[in-house]
């Protein structure tokens, strides 16, 4: 090995390490700012630095957060958990079923359906907001829980990922053996295919959960009643009042910190299966 090749290797490794450190700081520093800012009072926001701790005011901020406007933040937490939790569970099952059917069942139009699914991955969700609103208006569900919940149950990327994972993880011989033993398609899917697809299902669940939890534009279009807002929309409404009412500043920051915690917990608890599921899909 020549000296120049050794030097270039160390140079490239140093560059990679520097880029990784910068990416980690870019991801972590906003969370650090949330933690430090959530402990500040209204006056500390103008007298302390961004990452500087003021007087410990976290308990007071939490108390004010849960009592503001008759405790509407508790309703936002409940709504977010319903939208994201129930929506991610049902959406993951729907995506898994669709992906399994495209991968393992032979029916007319299967390739066309998969091509349409891939095309759906390219469509931004904001472009669908107006058509969804018009459809919800025809069904007279605008301003209700269902106007936000039902559209979130479908995810073309989740269907694509489920199809890729079912193709790799579910042997066709096992399915043929189950059918030979007299099992129907639903029983074969739920008792044989779905357990084999579990790592991929966890990955789809996390994508669904994060996407629904952070969803903002669809609730903004569909909802007018603050009691139905998710946390993302409710905190945005409060943030628009900060310039006129500075007391909303610590409420928005503290609420944003609480809104991040479920995402952190979900990734920490499911990160092993999520990584294995994503890696399995990446080799296809």
UniProtKB/TrEMBL annotation:
SUPFAM superfamilies: MetI-like (SSF161098). GO terms for biological process: transmembrane transport. The chain crosses the membrane at residues 15-35, 81-103, 112-135, 141-162, 201-223, 248-270. It is a multi-pass membrane protein. Keywords: Cell membrane, Membrane, Transmembrane, Transmembrane helix, Transport. The keyword Membrane applies. Belongs to the binding-protein-dependent transport system permease family. This is Sugar ABC transporter permease. It comes from Amycolatopsis vancoresmycina DSM 44592.
């Amino acid at each position: 090995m020549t000296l120049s090749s050794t030097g270039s290797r160390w140079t490239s490794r140093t560059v990679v390490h520097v880029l990784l450190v910068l990416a980690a700081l870019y991801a972590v520093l906003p969370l650090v700012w949330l933690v430090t800012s959530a402990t500040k009072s209204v006056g500390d926001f103008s007298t302390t630095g961004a990452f500087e701790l003021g007087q410990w005011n976290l308990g007071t901020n939490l108390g004010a957060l849960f009592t503001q406007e008759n405790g509407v933040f508790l309703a936002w937490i409940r709504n977010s958990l319903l939208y994201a939790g129930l929506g991610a569970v049902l959406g993951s099952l729907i995506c898994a079923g669709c992906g399994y059917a495209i991968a393992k069942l032979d029916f007319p139009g299967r390739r066309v359906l998969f091509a349409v699914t891939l095309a759906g991955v390219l469509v931004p969700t904001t472009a669908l907001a107006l058509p969804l609103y018009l459809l919800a208006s025809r069904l007279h569900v605008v301003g209700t829980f269902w106007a936000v919940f039902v559209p979130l149950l479908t995810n073309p990327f989740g269907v694509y990922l489920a199809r890729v994972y079912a193709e790799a993880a579910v042997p066709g011989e096992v399915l043929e053996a189950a059918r030979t033993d007299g099992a129907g398609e639903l029983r074969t899917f739920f008792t044989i295919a779905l357990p084999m697809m579990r790592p991929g299902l966890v990955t789809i669940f996390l994508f669904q959960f994060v996407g629904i939890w952070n969803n903002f534009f669809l609730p903004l279009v569909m909802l007018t009643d603050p009691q139905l807002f998710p946390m993302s929309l409710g905190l945005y409404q409060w943030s628009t009042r900060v310039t006129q009412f500075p007391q909303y500043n610590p409420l928005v920051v503290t609420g944003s910190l609480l809104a991040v915690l479920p995402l952190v917990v979900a990734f920490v608890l499911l990160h092993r299966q999520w990584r294995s599921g994503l890696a399995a899909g990446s080799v296809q």
